[in-house]
Amino acid sequence: MLHPLNPALGTTFAPPVMEARRWLEGVSFPPERPLINVSQAAPVDPPPEALRRAIAEAALDNPAAHLYGPVLGNRELREELAVQWSAAYGGAISGDQVAITQGCNQAFCAVMATLAGAGDEVLLPTPWYFNHKMWLDMSGVTAVPLPTGPGLLPDPERAATLITPATRAIVLVSPNNPGGAEYPGDLLRAFHDLAQKHGLALIVDETYRDFDSRSGAPHDLFTDPDWDESFIHLYSFSKAYRLTGHRVGAIVASRARLAEVEKFLDTVAICPSQLGQIAALWGMRNLAQWVAGERAEILARRAAMEAGLATLPGWKTLGCGAYFAYVEHPSPLPSPEFAKSLVREAGVLLLPGTMFMPASDPAGARQLRIAFANVDTAGIAELMRRLGALAP
After folding, report:
1. Total count of domains within the chain
2. Distance from first CA to last CA of the chain, Å, rounded?
3. At residue 371, what are phi and psi to the nearest 5 degrees?
4. Tens-place pLDDT, residues 362-388
5. Residue 34: DSSP 8-state
6. Where a domain ends, among 226, 258, 287?
7. What's residue 226's pLDDT?
8. pTM value?
9. How far apart, in whole angstroms, are the C-alpha atoms of residue 169 and residue 90?
10. Among residues 287, 313, 342, which one ends one of the domains?
11. Largest Cα–Cα distance of the chain, in whole Å?
12. CB count, 10 Å around CB of 308?
């Protein structure tokens, strides 16, 4: 045991993806049955060659690419996101309402640091994104579980019953990680109205917005003239442009909120990566057609997942969208043991629902998350064959 140890950090669970990777230790996968890794929602392929060349040229020819930059990010990228988001959402966003961060996880931590401290409460729909829960635990903030209903959609009326004087924010992720659900615009509007009524912040993490199956804006929250009074938007460039290793995310919020965010970011990272920002800006300006092709491929994989899961006896799809399928499994084993057994018995690595649910909720033991973005349709067919071959 470490002495001393911050008790809030000591009681925070270990990173789930790293834990699952340890299940691979000592296991060999023959060439005829290689590992199918559907544990993590991150692109494994490099960015397109043109973007890699832009990064290389910046590294060679742009001295500023190796220096500190503004804490809230480079002006050009902030302005570009503001212009594109204003058009996409039909609202009015300015560059000084945008901050660039070292990935979307940092965006969440920075925003939450301005909103809640030890003893405060934040509503998280379940199943939740585990890193959101981990940051709240580390900060001494109570994550209040908001159970979801059909389609893994949260209910604003149920959320209203969970609000207390200690509540500071409601956090939503759409398209959802881990559930894949795409929240209807009117549902987000209802949560916005609830947050505004109670003087809370509504944080909507739209990391996977580029892979939403719907056309048009997913919500109208940016159309409000005073949208930044209670609404905070988070985004990641990592998925759209395959920039996971460069760590580039964004916050869209009020100028006053970002002034507080700046304190956090200056202390934690000083500034976001210059090469990552250069890459994100180049991608926004040059890769719209390429991203559209990536979206089409992800939607094809989603269709293959839905069709394949429908053929598996005893399996139930709870949600499917963006990079994820969230399912109930038929095994008598609890999901952690079942997931571990799949590594040896099927050559499949995925995450158990217990990693996304409160320990007190028995539903997690029946659930699994399948992150299918890195598996093509042929690989999905093989995944279904392996799962279907398991003994009942």
Report:
1. 2
2. 42
3. -95, 100
4. 999 999 999 999 999 999 999 999 999
5. -
6. 287
7. 95
8. 0.95
9. 25
10. 287
11. 61
12. 22
Integer-rounded Cα Rg, in Å, for the chain is 21
Only one residue has tokens 């989603």, namely 302
Instruction: Report if residue 79 sits inside a domain.
Output: yes
CA distance 153 to 146: 10
In the sheet that 367-371 helps form, which strands lie side by side, from edge to edge? Answer: 316-321, 324-328, 367-371, 351-352
Tokens representing residue 282 in the block = 């180049």
Range of the domain at 329: 7-46+290-388
> Alpha helices, DSSP H only, in the chain?
7-10, 16-22, 49-61, 75-89, 104-115, 130-138, 156-162, 185-198, 238-241, 255-268, 274-286, 288-310, 335-346, 377-388
- Which residues in the chain land under pLDDT 70? 1, 391-392
Return the DSSP state at 1: -
Please state the φ and ψ torsions of residue 388, each to the nearest 5 degrees.
Answer: -70, -25
Bridge pairing between strands 201-205 and 231-236: parallel
Spell out the residues 6+ positions from residue 61 whose beta carbon is closer than 8 angstroms to its own. none
Beta-carbon contacts of residue 155 (< 8 Å; ≥ 6 apart): 148, 149
What is the Cα–Cα distance from 391 to 53, expressed in whole angstroms?
Answer: 49
Q: Do 250 and 164 lie in a common domain? A: yes
Task: For residues 251 and 232, give the distance between their C-alpha atoms in angstroms, rounded to a whole number.
Answer: 7
Q: Partners of 321 in the beta sheet?
A: 324
Residue 380 and residue 337 in contact, taking contact as beta carbons nearer than 8 Å:
no
Distance CA 85, CA 87 (A): 5
- Is the domain of 167 the same as that of 260? yes
Alpha-helix runs per DSSP H in 163-226: 185-198
Identity of the residue numbered 160: A
Q: Which 3 state secondary structure label does DSSP give 209? A: helix
Report pLDDT digits (tens) over 296-354. 999 999 999 999 999 999 999 999 999 999 999 999 999 999 999 999 999 999 999 99
What is the rounded distance in angstroms from the CA atom of residue 87 to the CA atom of residue 215?
14
